[in-house]
Structure formats: structure tokens, C-alpha cells
Write a structure and sequence with these properties.
Order of helices and strands: HHEEEHEEEHEHEHEHEEHEHEHH
CATH class: Alpha Beta
Oligomer: single chain
Strand order of the largest sheet: 3-4-7-8-9-10-12-13
CATH superfamily: Aldolase class I
Structural class: alpha/beta
Number of domains: 1
Number of strands: 13
Length: about 350
């Protein structure tokens, strides 16, 4: 059924972007429950990253399924792993609509959703009801009204809540749509946050008898020197992985296009060059100390391979799915399958 997406896309693109998202998932959920939507037969290309065995290198980025309400439907795409969220301790509506905009000529999206989600308990309930048994990442953030001085409290609360349900947890300090959030990437703030998270992770590992890796998601708009500084901090604080990158505030690649000046984060192919450059800087700075998950502008199998060639161990998709549909997942899995499936080095 996934091959029908090109025929459905004109109808979906006639709708507001957020409405189209809701309609598409409602349909896909029904097809998955009926057993009509099924995962394609894809080549096995297992790889071990963060101590986890991934069936392939291609995952879903956070943001598409913020509340983990559609995991079973997304599992029919053939992903090697799925990341849900961003989730916050308390429910919040996010920013006012409209807050998602398609830049069709660039196959890009601008969003200013603002961590709209039903809260961490709702996400846990949805995860518990799902039948998905693959690798699940849960992306956590702070509530919009929590000041950065107390941000660690929100992140620790979310980590504590999701720990039993996640294979890995991503710490989102790079969304441009929550006021002040990116300030948490600054040296002192980042050091304090990572220290609090590492302390909690160690305590939870003792309680639950298993280590759940922590990945930190960073912005593409950091300078190369700042990226190198973040890399040093992640190693010093014994983090398990880094995700590069979130959306960008830059508009140089889409100047003059309709909706280009909308406030929010830009994703899609215009982000690819910078996000891949960040992966490259990280790879050199980290020198194998921890793995990199590459995300940003992947819209083809070749783009997925380029992220890996820059130094990523895994890749994630989001905006490319909106324009290409589920076929993009299979294309990327096949394109990355010939790569030697060797374990990524972890600390």
C-alpha cells in the first residue's frame, strides 16, 4: 500500500500542512490495524551503535510522532529504529497555528510547532499500548514556561519517566521554537545539564539493571568552534551519542521562496550541506569516542550514504518522508546496506 503515496500526495498537499499530517496518520493507522500496510522486504544490514543492535542504519527522526501515537503504523515503513517525541513533563499546546509551512520548490518545511505534546505520561501510555518491538528512541525536552535555570529538573523528570520504555533517550537542546532552549548548548549551561543527566542515568541503570544510552541533539547553526566545544563536553561527561542536527534558522538557501521568511526551523534539502558539515566536524573532533546520528535534508539513498561517509553511524529521516513517502525509507536502507556492518565505537 505504501506505493500509493505519490497518488495521495496531491490531496494531502492541498490541505494545511498540519491537517495533512493528521489525515495521513489517521489513514495509515487504519491500514496498519487492518494488516494492509506491511513492512517491505529489505536487505539485512545490522550494525551495533551505542551498544544496541540495529537491523539497519535508517531511522525516523523525532518530531513526526511527538506523542508516540503512531508507532505501529510507522513500523510498517521498514525503519531500523524509531524516535518519538519531543515530549515534555507536562502537556502543552505548542505555538499558535498555522505553524507548519511547505516550501515546495525546495522540498523543505518551516515549522514552529513548539513541543506540542500530551505530556510524558500520555506518551508512556501510548508506548505501552503499541506492538512495536524494535529499537525505540524517546526525545525529551523542557516545558516552554520552565526557565533554563530549572531546565535540568524537566529533563531529569522526563528521563526518569521514559527510562523503562526507551532503548535510548535523546536530549533536545536545539529546537529553535522554544524560547531560550538553544542557550542550553552554551558551555556552563551544557556542562551542568549533562552532569545532572549523567548522574540520573547512572542511578536509573542501577535501579533498572540496564544502561539506556543518552544522545544529545545539537543545532546546525553553531559555529565549527562551538561544535568542537560541544564534542569535548560530550566526551568529558560520558554521553553515549550525538545527533546532528536539528532544524536551522538560516534562510540563505531558500531566499525568495514562498514561506521562506516564516519564523521557525527550516528542514529538508536546504539543510543538508550544513548539517553534513557539522557531522564532519564532529567526526574529526570526536575521533570515534562516541557515535554520530546524522539527520538533516536526506531525500535520497545517495544523501543517506553521504551522511555516513561524513562520519555518521546511523541516519534519520523526516522532511524527505513528507515529499517522498515511505519509499524513501526502503531506498535509503538499500543504499546503505552494502556498507560493512561493523560495530561503531562507543565509550
Amino acid at each position: 500500500m505504501h506505493e500509493l503515496y505519490p497518488f495521495a500526495r496531491p490531496f494531502l498537499f492541498a490541505l494545511d500542512a498540519e491537517t495533512a499530517h493528521d489525515v495521513a496518520f489517521a489513514t495509515l493507522d487504519r491500514l496498519a490495524r487492518a494488516g494492509i500496510a506491511r513492512a517491505p522486504q529489505l536487505p539485512q544490514s545490522p550494525v551495533t551503535v551505542m551498544g544496541l543492535a540495529f537491523p539497519n542504519r535508517v531511522g525516523l527522526a523525532a518530531g513526526l510522532d511527538k506523542n508516540a501515537a503512531h508507532i505501529d503504523a510507522l513500523a510498517t515503513f521498514g525503519f531500523g529504529f524509531i524516535e518519538v517525541g519531543t515530549v515534555t513533563p507536562r502537556p502543552q499546546p505548542g505555538n499558535p497555528r498555522p505553524r507548519m509551512f511547505r516550501l515546495r520548490k525546495a522540498h523543505a518545511i518551516v515549522n514552529r510547532l513548539g513541543f506540542n505534546n500530551g505530556g510524558v505520561q500520555s506518551l508512556i501510555d501510548n508506548v505501552s499500548r503499541s506492538h512495536y518491538r524494535g529499537i525505540l528512541g524517546i526525545n525529551i525536552g523542557r516545558n516552554f514556561d520552565t526557565p533554563n535555570e530549572r531546565a535540568a529538573d524537566d529533563y531529569v523528570a522526563c528521563l526518569r519517566a521514559v527510562y523503562p520504555y526507551a532503548h535510548y533517550v535523546t536530549v533536545n537542546i536545539s529546537s529553535p521554537n522554544t524560547k531560550g532552549l538553544r542557550d542550553l548548548q552554551a558551555d556552563d549551561a551544557l556542562s551542568a545539564l549533562l552532569e545532572a543527566l549523567k548522574h540520573e542515568q547512572d542511578a536509573l541503570a542501577q535501579t533498572h539493571g540496564r544502561h539506556v544510552p543518552l544522545a544529545i541533539k545539537i543545532a546546525p547553526d553553531l559555529t565549527d568552534d562551538a561544535v568542537r566545544g560541544v564534542a569535548r563536553m560530550l566526551v568529558a561527561q560520558r554521553m553515549d551519542a550525538v545527533i546532528a542536527t536539528n532544524t536551522t534558522l538560516a534562510r540563505d538557501k531558500v531566499a525568495g521562496l514562498a514561506h521562506a521568511e516564516e519564523t521557525g526551523g527550516l528542514s529538508g534539502p536546504p539543510l543538508f550541506e550544513r548539517s553534513t558539515a557539522v557531522v564532519r566536524v564532529l567526526a574529526k573532533a570526536l575521533d570515534g569516542a562516541l557515535p554520530i546520528i546524522g539527520v538533516g535534508g536526506i531525500d535520497s539513498g545517495d544523501a543517506a550514504r553521504a551522511k555516513l561517509a561524513a562520519g555518521a553511524s546511523l541516519v534519520q529521516l523526516y522532511t524527505g518522508l513528507i515529499y517522498r513517502g515511505p519509499a524513501l525509507v526502503a531506498e535509503c536502507v538499500r543504499a546503505t546496506a552494502p556498507l560493512k556492518a561493523e560495530a561503531a565505537r562507543t565509550p
